[in-house]
Every structure is written in structure tokens, then in C-alpha cells.
Amino acid sequence: MSAYAHQMEREYSTQSLSSSRGGSDMGSHYVVESGIYMTSFAATIFIGALTTIGVLLITLLIALVVMLQSCQIERSGAVDSSKSSDYYSYCKIFTLHAEINSLEVNEFPSVCKDFAIQYIKEGQYAKDFKFTMWLAEKYFSTVTPLGDGLDALLLDIDDFHSSNPLYNNLYRFDQNGCNECIEETKDLKHKLILRFCMKLQAGGWSLILLSRKPEKQRNATIEHLTTAGYRNWSSLIMRSDDEMQMDTHEYFSRQRGVIQKEGFRITAVISGHMDALTGPSLGKRIFKLPNPMYYKFDDHIESANLLK
């Protein structure tokens, strides 16, 4: 090949190489302008960042859901608390007037009977009853009868009679599974009163029993009393047909007047109802036995488990 041919070949090769390089540069610019190019390391970092952001977003979403649920629970609790507080206030006023007016158990709203059951279930009723009986025993330990059989204790027996509607109603309205504790409390009440009465009788005191029940139930009442262990009472006073229409406050006041006219000296009256503890001729002391239906709201605070 001639020298001229060799020179032309070298020039052509140089131009071809330059064209090739120029084409490559144009290709790189095209990729950059039309998309994103990155190495595998950069891609790994990018995917990791996206994953981290996703995890953070999911965590934030879960936190928001938990906060919303917590708010709903708190709002629900506030509503329940408000509702329970309304019941508390209602029963507090209702039982106060029920005790003053000696309302029957069947006149109590169910929700207030739930409070009575709770009073028994928590053991507070038994404690209050024991303390009341201790006060009565302490008082009688400081006085002495004259010995003529005329110093008397008046006892309202309807508080512990087996047919007392209080317990029957409590059993029916008990939603707390407390039938056993109601029975235990009733037995405790009988034992404490019986022991107290036997002790006083042995000390020379006369025991006069009063009841709101009609005279026609006398035999059944006597049978119950003797079965329970009561003996040698001075008298058992029950209501005649005419007295059945009489207000119980008036009935008890009248009977105390009759007892005094017969020569008895009334030393004390014991009852769990206000109708037997108000009016004239009450003697030197009155002892109010705690009554579950007249729940002492000022002394016992409602708990969160109340209507469970």
C-alpha cells in the first residue's frame, strides 16, 4: 500500500474514533436527561430509606389507632361513671325518705336494692350490726333493773322474722351471686340479738316483742320465735284488724303508751325501722339497727364494681 493510502487510513480511523466517542457522550447525556441512573449501592440505600419511612408511617398509624381507642374507652368510662353517679345520688335521696317514711321493700327501685346487696357483700353491714349491738350491751351494763319485772326492753321482731320480705327481695334482685353471704349475715343477726336478749332476761329485764304483722299470724310467729330460741318474753304485741289500717308510726306510739299504762318502764327500744323509733314514750335509749335497704351513703362510698 502506498504512503498516501496509509495516511488516508489513519485519518479515517481517527475520524471514526472521534465519531464513536462523540456518540458515546451524546448517549450518556440522553440517559441522564430521560431517567435516573444509579449504582447498586445507591439503589440499596434508596430502598432502605423507603422501607424506614414505611415502617415509621405504619408505627404512626398504629399509635393513632391506639390513641383513638383509648379516647373511646375514656369517654365510655366517663359515661358509665356519670350514670353510676346519677344512680348514687338518686338512691341516696330515695333511701333517706324511704327510711323516714318506712317504705316497704317492694317500693324500692331495683338499682337501690343492688346497693343494699353490695352493702352486705362487702361485709360492712355485719360490722355495723355488731357495733350497734355492742353499744346496746354497753349501755345496759351501766343500768340495773329495780327487780319488780317492770323495767322493759322493747324489741321490733320484724327485723329478724323468717318471713321478713327484706331477705326475699334481696334474693330475688341479687345479681352478684351473694345468696350465701345474705344467709350468713341473717344468721349472724339472729345470733347476736338472741344472745343479747337472753343476757338481759337473765339480768332481770323484761322483754316485750312488737310486730307489724296481723294478730291472725300469732301462732306462726310464736312457733318461729321458739324455734329460733326465744323464751319467756313478757308479751308479744301484734296488730288487730282495726290497727292494720293504721299508720305504723301511730301503731307503735299507741302500743308504747299502752305498755306504760300497764306499769312498765320502757328503758330502751331496738328496731331497724324509723316508725318504731319515733314518737312519744321511747324510754331512755333507742338503738337503730342497720338496715341494708337504708344504705348509709354518707358512710360507705360506692365502688367501681358495684353493679357487676
Give a written overview of the molecule:
The chain has 308 residues and is α/β, with parallel strands linked by helices. It has a domain at 101-294: Rossmann fold. The protein is built from eight helices and five strands; from the N terminus they run H-H-H-H-E-H-H-E-H-E-H-E-E. It has helices at residues 3-34, 40-100, 110-121, 124-140, 165-173, 179-202, 218-228, 248-261; strands spanning 151-156, 206-214, 235-239, 265-271, 285-288. Strands 3-2-1-4-5 form a five-stranded parallel β-sheet, sandwiched between helices. Strand 2 (206-214), helix 7 (218-228) and strand 3 (235-239) form a beta-alpha-beta unit. Helix 4 runs parallel beside helix 6. Mean pLDDT is 76; it is low at 12-34, 73-81 and 297-308. The chain crosses the membrane at residues 36-66.
